[in-house]
Amino acid sequence: METYDPDFMEKQRKVLKTAKRTAGIFIAVVVLAVLSFGSFYNIGEQEQAVLTTFGVAKSVTEPGLHFKIPLIQQVQKVNTTIQGFAIGYDQNSNESQEEDSLMITSDYNFVNVDFFVEYKVSDPVKAVYASQDPLLILQNISRSCIRGVIGSYEVDSVLTTGKNEIQSKVREQIAQKLEQHDIGLQVINVTIQDSEPPTTEVMEAFKAVETARQGKETAVNDANKYRNEKLPEAEAQIDKIMQEAEAQKTERINEANAEVARFNAMYEEYAKNPEVTRRRMFYETMEDVLPRMKVIIDGTDGTETILPLDSFTATAEGDGTVTGDSGSTAGAGSTAGTGGTGSTAGSTS
């Protein structure tokens, strides 16, 4: 049977109490150490920090040791040194990347151009919070500006004498667009690392495209030339037809007016003396008609008859004779006739 020892129990309570006190002190020391370690941060010479307190950010630019409130303030360090990235080639392997380096110039030539862009952080707060990935934005802006500037120069300038001017223009355009986006980055320099004609396959493809473009221009020029030749001819023909029509119109109108005036004048004369006018008109008509007719005048029975000879001469061409009741014609150029009281023979041609 165990016996109860009051002294032993008291010693146990003291030991337990001492252990609890020691553990509390140790925990307090650890907590203080952790808090002390998280309350200070150091900024290097080439760094700046963004100190955030309840969502409000401010930049810390002075290098050295700085204090912050643990669990309340957050610190994010930003590298402010000049950094860079390549466009058109891989910095590690130095291999060309044609999706970025292959560009087209203003004279429709292809060229491979490699660039290196240098930049630095100008505003740490904006670099951290203004965008999710400011470097990606800068890279896209650089690609756009580079292609735009290269596209405004001829291939000879890109390969030889125009490099410095191209670099300067690219840097200016990147700086302008960075101001518009305001992402806390600043472009320092843009350098053309290399520029050369593309591969043989690309050159062949380009030649095919250039040939097609020249063929198109030739076809367009030929079509314009043909149009320029035919349009004036057609317009001149139209003018000629219009002028002839106008002339005929005027002539016909004048002729009609003259006929009307002549008829009115004749009618006035006819109204004064109808018989004389009829005879004069008859004689004038005969003078116009008879010289074109072949006739024979027969007066054997005391009357004068005018007969056309065309129908008779057509049948007498074989033997050269024409016969009739009152007379006969013999030979190619003689005419004879007989009658009771007298005869008249002759021919008019």
Overview of the structural elements:
51% of the residues lie in helices and 21% in strands. The model is unreliable at 315-349 (pLDDT under 50). The longest helix has 73 residues, at 200-272. It has four domains: 6-78, no CATH class; 82-198, Tetrahydropterin Synthase, Chain A, CATH 3.30.479.30; 202-291; 293-349, no CATH class. The protein has helices at residues 6-38, 98-101, 124-129, 134-150, 155-159, 163-181, 200-272, 274-289, 310-315, and strands at residues 40-43, 47-53, 56-60, 64-67, 73-79, 83-87, 102-104, 110-121, 185-196, 295-298, 305-308, 322-323, 327-329, 336-337. The protein contains nine helices and 14 strands. With 349 residues, it is α+β, with helices and mostly antiparallel strands. The strands form five sheets. Strands 6, 7, 8 and 9 form a four-stranded antiparallel beta sheet that branches. It has a three-stranded antiparallel beta sheet with strand order 3-2-5.
- What letter string, H or E per element, gives the SSE order? HEEEEEEHEEHHHHEHHEEHEEE
* Count of separate DSSP helical elements: 9
Gross morphology is rod-shaped
Q: Strand fraction band?
A: 15-25%
Distance between the termini: 190 Å
Give the rounded overall mean pLDDT. Answer: 78
Structural class: alpha+beta
Radius of gyration: 61 Å
* Count of spatially separate domains: 4
Instruction: Give the tally of β-strands.
Output: 14
Largest sheet: 4 strands, antiparallel
The helix content is 40-55%
- Return the CATH class of the largest domain: Alpha Beta
> What would you give as the CATH superfamily of the largest domain?
Band 7 domain
At CATH's second level, what is the architecture of the largest domain? 2-Layer Sandwich
CATH topology of the largest domain: Tetrahydropterin Synthase, Chain A
Low-confidence stretches: 315-349
